[in-house]
Design brief:
The complex is a heterodimer of chains A (about 240) and B (about 70). Chain A has about 240 residues and is mostly helical. Chain A has helices at about 5-30, 30-45, 55-90, 100-120, 135-160, 165-185, 200-230, and one strand at about 235-240. Chain A has two domains: about 1-105 and about 195-235, no CATH class; about 130-195. With about 70 residues, chain B is mostly helical. Chain B is about 65% helix and about 10% strand. The chains are: A mainly alpha (about 240), B mainly alpha (about 70).
Amino acid sequence: MRATVFIGITLLAGIICGLILGGTNLVVTEPFIDQAIDIEIQNAIVEGENIGSIQEITKYRIWQKGGQVLAASILGLSLGSLFALVYAFAWPSIPGSNGIKKGLFLAAIIWFTIFLIPFLKYPANPPTVGDPETIFYRQSLYLVFMAASGLGALVLAFLYKKLNNKKSRKFIVPVLYGAYISAIFVMMPPNPDLITTPMDLINNFRIASALTITLFWFLLGAIFGVLWDKFKPYRKVTSKL
Amino acid sequence: MSTVQVTIESVSVPTFVLGILSAVFLFGMFIVGYDQGHLFNVVVGEQAFDDLYLHELYHDLRHVSGFPCH
């Protein structure tokens, strides 16, 4: 494998998708975050807290909104790296006749296991939801659940390759994953924090965030697949006498 | 004497590439999803846990991507 080409297309796909995610979020999810922060400010005023001036709050929000794009770029590089490694290791076994099809297939698997399944148990929440006292506990829950789902899928992918009967493995492996993740789903404790924000806002935010993260994953699969086919990092041409 | 071009196809990922991309993955996940002042704590000490500069910079995306934020 040509290492520099592989690293190059990985980082390029990651940063492109990250920038698109950040830009899309500015339009799609920021209005809900603004609404939630307005509620947070109103609550703070009612409780007699010093919230600072309007100028300070505006400056603060510009910092956070700018950070949305930067953070999405970093997340793109990070998740793009994970995606590329799995893609390279699994490439011969991924169904699909070209890079895009293989990329989309793998993106669907990773999106399902490390985003959708954790999202169903611990859905995204806008600001105003979350007690700072429980942050490390909630972070641990999310990390454990995401790792359990992702690693479970990885182990089952190896099992899928080991099973010789092609017909039965297409049935056995999804059933095993379903049973495993259902057990984890039931065993893991719920998010401990109460939601006091209007559910309309919470639900709209969750739908918007799920849409942009889903868009990110499938774009990553498609763009990485295109770059993989175009630059062929697996192909090396050498001259011999 | 003539030269022959040989095309080799291999998807074997070199160890150093595995190391670099794993590091990018873990570092990115940590700072976007989990940092609560830990990274700047190395430079500015305990004050980083109160200032939360990186946390606030990543605040909006952290909410959107599903990570608990505060």
